[in-house]
Design a protein that fits this description.
12 helices, D-Maltodextrin-Binding Protein, domain 2, 339 residues, 5-stranded mixed sheet
């Protein structure tokens, strides 16, 4: 062996441990700002936990709405393309990808964030949600507490109060529910809602308490407690990127994901709801809780929305959609799986 080959072999041996422990950077995006509850209570702590679980081997780069990767309509698409590795996104902002999953957003399906999120996750595990998530490593699927009807100047108690009112709707499923009670839906993503309100384009907002809308209680004065809808959120990872990681890093991600992360988000929604709900108990505010007879009117008016939505699902998925719906509302299920 020549002197040069001996030196090369020594250098290779010296470098091998460093290469084996080369740092791994994962890019995590979400669509709200750097001071939002998603950033404060999920992205930053989850990133720190993953970094600690891998003894600093993994570094998580955080991307939010102020970055080029914060577009709410592109979170899943960016993960699929490998532009980012992990994303927290809103199903309704990318509706063409996940129509079966939207069944969870229909009226009177979700009672609260915890039971709704657990049910959705269990259905994803068992029924596969029409195979809509097959292209991703799914870290969590979850819902917020039910969305209410919020209005600026007119109190709403029964469906007959809705005609003529224009409401922000987050997606087509909610828009269909609004049309069912003769209201006019205006589909807006979260960052477009308050400008539309200021411009006089909407009279109210259908949303949950825990929303990121600035000065919400300063604009909305009447809050009707009807389980009008819930939104589905996701945390997904690029499948190929996950597969490329060392087994110990994969295990660390898995430990911080799945059912534990689903429950974590559900409890966070209760925390995020509280400040806005508390603000709705102050002067000039009214929380309207329909009585049993009034609630029956809402249920009767909105029940056909689910049937129409499920029937209109892409070819071959109407039966799957019905299974998802029945499972979410607690009807007994067989062992059927869907793709």
């Amino acid at each position: 062996m020549t002197r040069r080959s001996i030196l090369a072999a020594f250098c290779a041996l010296w470098a091998a441990p460093a290469l084996a422990q080369a740092p791994i950077t994962l890019r995590l995006s979400q669509f709200l700002g750097p001071q939002s509850f998603f950033a404060r209570d999920f992205a930053r702590p989850w990133a720190r936990e993953l970094e600690a679980a891998t003894n600093g081997r993994v570094r998580v780069e955080l991307l939010d709405a102020t970055s080029a990767y914060g577009d709410v309509t592109k979170q899943a698409a960016q993960v699929a393309a490998g532009t980012v590795d992990i994303a927290l996104g809103l199903r309704g902002a990318e509706p063409a990808r996940f129509p079966c999953t939207a069944v969870a957003e229909l009226p009177f399906v979700v009672r609260d964030a915890l039971s709704g999120s657990r049910a959705l996750w269990a259905i994803h595990q068992r029924l596969q949600l029409c195979g809509e998530w097959d292209g991703f490593k799914v870290l969590a699927l979850f819902v917020h507490n039910p969305g209410l009807i919020h209005t600026a100047t007119k109190p709403v108690t029964v469906p007959a109060d809705m005609p003529g009112l224009r409401f922000r709707a987050p997606n087509q499923a909610v828009a269909a529910a609004l049309r069912a009670v003769s209201a006019t839906p205006v589909i807006l993503q979260v960052n477009d809602v308050m400008p539309a309100l200021a411009a006089g384009r909407i009279d109210g907002i259908v949303t949950n308490w825990g929303n990121p809308l600035p000065d919400f209680d300063g604009h909305m004065h009447y809050h009707t407690a009807v389980q009008f809808y819930s939104s589905v959120f996701f945390v997904v990872m690029n499948k190929q990127r996950f597969a490329s990681l060392p087994p110990d890093v994969q295990a660390a991600i898995d430990k911080l994901s799945g059912a534990a992360l689903v429950d974590r988000f559900a409890h966070l929604w209760d925390k995020w709801d509280q400040p806005v709900r508390d603000g709705a108990t102050g002067p000039g505010q009214q929380i309207i809780t329909p009585d049993a007879a009034q609630m029956a009117l809402w249920q009767a008016a909105l029940r056909p929305v689910a049937d129409r939505y499920i029937a209109a699902l892409p070819a071959g998925h109407a039966a799957d959609g019905r299974r998802i719906y029945d499972a979410l509302i607690g009807k007994p299920q067989g062992n059927a799986r869907m793709r």
